[in-house]
Amino acid sequence: MITHLRHVDLAVPDLARQRDFYTGAWGLKTEHTDTGVAFLAAEGSPEQYVVRLRQADDKRIDLIAFGVATVSDVDILAGRLATEGVTLVHEPRALHTPGGGYGFRFFDNEGRTIEISADVAVRAHRRIEAGEAVPVRLSHVVINSANPEATRAFYEKHLGFRLSDILMHPRMGEMMWFLRVNEWHHSMAIARGPHPALHHVSFEMRGLDEYMRGTGRLLRAGVEKIWGPGRHLAGNNTFSYFLDPHGNTMEYTTELELVDEDTWHPHLYDFSDPEVSDQWGTANAMNEFVARKSFNDPDKGLFVAPPV
């Protein structure tokens, strides 16, 4: 029933610094604010916001939000999850975040708070022009999991996610699973990691020129680059990874693959092959430095619902 990814919400100790980064160098727009909370929109997206930032003592993932088509789908999915033993944070109800709507929240198998919603008002948005290097929309979110096989099974069984591709390594086995809810190659991916945490959040740019312009702007601003620019094989999308002020990895991407649901068969890619990580060969090598940065800090929000 899930149609798309809506927004990713982060709690951080220094809200002002985090907001300045996302609305300055990164190119999002402050659409709504409240006490200790900022709702940031992508100029080309109809979603009310794609990132929510909240002032908090601890850095954490507050929430990952997905949309469904109708309020009836919200009720059906909430009832199904409750019957299957999934812990609901709250039952379906009117939402009081920007755009309103109707939704519910629950904990996934590792304790992340997930929101499902429908009937959220569409934001006035615009077409991004040629050469304009700002995010068009939220592309996907990748999470680290200490038990990725169980996490994959949770999202496939309870939420209907479908497998697109898998990354593996000859010594380490399967390492990342790309999951989709629509024709985009992935809206979520699950990476094997030492602890549950955010791996990265990705933002779609208008095209290759805008993607490179945005990458260059961040480099000139002195933002720490982790990996890229390059083009992955799984998903066929470009990538440039940077660290935000609190050590979360953020990605600029474009040209994420669209799959044909009727003919697609998942691939098993060996990422020890350099062309799997980067078809172009332009990015710095995937190594222990990149991996450590992507592990992030252990998430302190597991099984603790955010107050907003």
What's the short version?
The protein is an alpha/beta fold and about 300 residues long. The chain has helices at about 15-25, 70-85, 150-160, 210-220, 275, 290-295, and strands at about 1-10, 30-35, 35-40, 50-55, 60-70, 90-95, 100-105, 115-120, 135-145, 160-170, 175-180, 190, 195-205, 225-230, 240-245, 250-255, 265-270.
Q: How would you describe this structure to a colleague?
A:
Strand 6 and strand 7 form a beta hairpin. The longest helix is centred in the N-terminal third of the chain and has 13 residues, at 71-83. This protein is an alpha/beta fold. It is built from six helices and 17 strands. InterPro entries: Glyas_Bleomycin-R_OHBP_Dase, Glyas_Fos-R_dOase_dom, GlyoxalaseI/FosfomycinResist, VOC_core. Residues 4-119, 137-255 form the VOC domain.
Helix-strand layout with pairing:
Blueprint: E1 2-12, H1 15-23, E2 29-34, E3 37-41, E4 51-55, E5 60-68, H2 71-83, E6 88-94, E7 102-107, E8 113-118, E9 137-145, H3 148-159, E10 162-169, E11 173-180, E12 188-192, E13 197-204, H4 208-220, E14 225-231, E15 238-243, E16 249-253, E17 267-270, H5 274-277, H6 288-295
Parallel strand pairs: 1-4, 5-8, 9-12, 10-17, 13-16
Antiparallel strand pairs: 1-5, 2-3, 3-4, 6-7, 7-8, 9-13, 10-11, 11-12, 14-15, 15-16
Domain VOC: 4-119, 137-255
InterPro entries: Glyas_Bleomycin-R_OHBP_Dase, Glyas_Fos-R_dOase_dom, GlyoxalaseI/FosfomycinResist, VOC_core
Protein name: Oxidoreductase
